[in-house]
Design goal:
The complex is a heterodimer of chains A (90) and B (575). Chain A is 78% helix and 0% strand. With 90 residues, chain A is mainly α. Chain A has one domain. The radius of gyration of chain A is 35 Å and the shape is rod-shaped. In chain B, strand 18 and strand 19 form a beta hairpin. The longest helix of chain B is centred in the first third of the chain and has 28 residues. The chains are: A mainly alpha (90), B alpha+beta (575). Chains A and B meet through helix 1 of A and strand 3, strand 7 and helix 10 of B.
Amino acid sequence: MAKLNLLLLAVLVACALGLVTSQHKARKLFSALEREHDHGRELDIEYGRLQLEASTWGQHSRVARIAAGTLGLRVPDARRVRLLGRDDAQ
Amino acid sequence: MTAGSIAARGLVRLPVWRARIVLVGLIAAFGGLTVRAVYLQALRTDFLQEKGDARYSRVLEVPATRGRITDRHGEALAVSTPVKSIWAIPSDVRLKPAQAKTLARLLGMTARELHRKLAEPERDFVYLKRQLAPETSEAIARLGLPGIYEQREYRRYYPAGEVTAHLLGFTDVEDVGQEGLELAYEQSLGGRRGSRRVLKDRLGHVVEDVQSIRAAQDGTDLTLSIDSKIQSLAFAALKSAVERHRAKAGALVALDVQTGEVLALANVPSYNPNNRARLSGAELRNRVITDLFEPGSTLKPFTIALALESGKVTPQTMVATDPGRMTLAHYTIRDVHPAAALSVTQVLQKSSNVGAAKLALAMPREALWDLYDRLGFGRVPQLGFPGAAAGRLRPYRSWRPIEQATMAYGHGISVSLMQLARAYMVFATDGELVPLTLVKSEPVAHGERIISVDTARAVRAMLESAVQPGGTGPRARIVGWRVAGKTGTAHKQENGGYAADKYIASFVGLAPVSAPRVIIAVMIDEPVGDYYGGSVAAPVFAELMQATLRLLGVPHDAPLEPLEPPSSDASREST
């Protein structure tokens, strides 16, 4: 009887320690998860900022201004355009 | 040890009552503990639980971001991004003069303004400045001033600025939609803030998620039907036309014929939605959707379509228009180019008011009303856009003959530019009306049939002749594609009558004629000097149509040869 009690006590202590360890591990993992979530949110915010930036730099009016002003590009005169059919292109 | 050894040997019997007292004492102590335990566990559990939670359990707000708005190709048109707001507890703020100066400079205000804001000690929360740029708020945080705190907020940015201002609208300081599509799609864009209960450790880290009280839901992104390139070109073309003609305002809308999608929607004057410090009502108005005007001659094609549908006339039927005016109940309808007789095609080409009036008077007024009604005039368009105007189409029972006649050329009826552009869809789709949308969508298989295929094609051919050198709108022609359209030059309504010297110049057209893809409607309000639709609005149409067809990669249906210049007199018309 006393032997069984001792055995059960040992099992109990082992279980208790196991519980504490797993709780600790769970909390560590959870805080890692939280960090990743935060990181994900930050990346999303940065993506939004980059989208904004891309859209601002890529504004059609700005591209047109640079093309016409700095690079001196223009739409060709109708006389200088020749259309190729699908057959000509091959 | 003598007594102990004696007792061990059982030689001395201790009195029983001593053991009893100890026993009773122990039982009483245990009983007390049990009662206390029951009291704490069962009766005061809520209070204690609360005290415990208060030490490590926290309810966190889970923010939801507002959905982004992009154009049909995914180009960002509106994005919310976090910014910091600076707030203070005035009674806690202790500032040295130098610190106050630095802070005021960073906040973009004078030191006196800052002091005034902080001079209300009874208030314990004052916003010093909302929605600062991240660099500025970091600089303020580095100062480490007592009583000054920052708070994260979202602010909406519109990279295209004034180009898309009327279409998108804007959000308020809490990032809630106030105008335009931001308001119309508030439900789906807005998202829902959530909250959750967590456990925090000594250092403030979240260690355990106890319960999600309300799941946060981010706003859904919205993909518009707008093509940002076409939109940008449309705005630029409209703006330069309004400036060139010193006009009060201008509006433009471009539609995709196959899908009913709105490709561009522009208004002048505009405003910068990123900086709305000084806004006037005129700048805020979305004229395409919310403003009504008497369309004038741009309504003639519908009168003629109805005449063709009735079977009484063909495009070649001659209509007597001699001597270029017609008097009905003290009111005289005039033509700018008087002629003895015009064919139905020429009535449209020369924009003859007398001809259109005669055609309208030859038909029952119910028929005209019914056509206008089915075209959507007088009804709010199903666009889901806030403030969309229905227009005014009076019941036909109240029409007098003169009204039936003027209605034929677009007076006595008011429409929005959006309704007008949509109505032209019947000529582009061989007689069907497709529902319009501002959100990217798939081609519609079948619209609602309004007029027959033959009539639609016949009117389209007439509309093409109206932009030929003999018509009123030759400046709408473009190189490489056949276009068709109608000019409008209407007197503006003012104080119940018509202003003698104020006009609305308009043009509605479609291209390419062989297989229409795009409809563009342009309206210029009060041009100064030259005021004809054919010379003010048609060039805007031509400029944008050329660019749009090129961007969409629409195959050419006309030779790539320079156009012969039109005569200067041709665009004149009186409605």
